[in-house]
Amino acid sequence: MAIILFDDNAHQSLLPLTYTRPVADLRIGILTIAEKWAKHLNSAYSFHTLDYLKVKFPANIEADNIFINGATCPDENLLEAIGTLQTGQALKYNEQLIAVKLNAAGAESFDPGADFDDVINYPNLFVSIKYPEDIFRKNDIELRKDFQLLTKGRESAAISTTNTVIGNDFFAEEGAIAECSTFNTTNGPIYLSANTEVWEGTHIRGPFAICEHSQVKMGTKIYGATTVGPYCRVGGEINNSVIWGYSSKGHEGYLGNSVLGEWCNIGADTNNSNLKNNYAEVKLWDYSTQRFRKTGLQFCGLIMADHAKCGINTMFNTGTVVGVGANVFGAGFPRNFVADFSWGGAQGFEVYAINKMFETAQKVFDRRDHRDFDETEQNILTAIFEQTEEYRRF
User: Phi and psi of 33, rounded to 5°?
Assistant: First the structure.
């Protein structure tokens, strides 16, 4: 049975985070959505996504296939409902397609917007993401679920007695290192993946997870619900934020109610606002409507897409969206929407030439022995550069 995670219109509403990946490759909680389904179903997975992403994220079709909405996070009720589907049956919540079981011929012509003759209506609520802010909003729920999934029936590895652990929901994988730090699990679990380091003087309140090969620097303060993805380094003060893989916020400065993509770098003493001075509702730039959208949130910080970077002492306004490959620097507050492949700051922006951006990306990838900035990566970024040209009319 092949598990194929498909994109629907959420791929558009989740931009710019999904320019570089299918929706199910988004990390929320400890795992990506695709990894959650694979763990629950004990199966490999693939993706049904946009054409320019297919080389990196191909679909693997077999005789029997379950297509699952990539924006949907698994739970026990969903797993039971999907497990009972017969070939040709679709599971929907209102008009949203959750899953459909198809043979090889049906899988080859699969269209998430098509009508299906045999539809089962799903009656229960579940976690689904539609907008970028949903990732930090719902991270608490998914952190707790993933913690239970990954630690059920297992015992934590021992960590140094120089640490203080408050509460019982603490788990360290073998190879996790921590010294002279406090871990408070009374508000939520704390999970340290293998080959991670928490340096001395750090204070962490759960729920919190750090993924493999990442580091928390000395004196860091972290509040839940926060996730630090693989191969990251973080410091300063972080609150209710999700940082994906290969990104760094290694210095002092505040990051709150935010999402950082992969290959991002936050300069020293950079801060983002997550609350407007007048306590008003925060709006975020929406690529699908090309205007600012009300979020319904009073606390909403920074949304930064893959390969974006900012210089030291950068100040981000409440509800700022920074696109793929943007490079922000200089004094003052940049605008609340920084277009993809932009270069500049509050004094103005120009186009970040893609060959120059590639030079930087190559240097960043060279720091990771197991990752190559190959033709596939370059072609995806080139496609995004072309798609986002309309936003760079400075």
Answer: -60, -40
Helix (H, G, I), strand (E, B) or coil at 73: coil
Q: Say how far apart CA 260 and CA 304 lie, in whole Å.
A: 5
Phi, psi (deg, nearest 5) at residue 48: -115, 105
Burial (CB < 10 A; 0-12, 13-18, 19+), residue 236, is buried
Residues 287-314 pLDDT 10s: 999 999 999 999 999 999 999 999 999 9
Judge residue 33's burial from the number of C-beta atoms within 10 Å of its C-beta, 0-12 exposed, 13-18 middle, 19 or more buried: buried
Q: What is the DSSP string of 272-322?
A: E--B-TT-PPPEEEETTTTEEEE-S-SB--EEE-TT-EE-TT-EE-TTEEE
CA distance 345 to 331: 8
Report the predicted TM-score, pTM, of the whole model to 2 decimal places: 0.96
Tokens of 76: 């026990």
pLDDT, tens digit, 9 for 90 and up, residues 48-62: 999 999 999 999 999
**Cα separations in angstroms, 201 against 35, 61, 178, 220:** 32, 50, 10, 7
Length of the chain: 394
Which residues, listed in sequence order, are joined to residue 328 by a DSSP beta bridge? 310, 344
What b/e string do you get for 291-305 counting C-beta neighbours within 10 Å, with b at 16 or more?
A: eebebebebbbbbbb
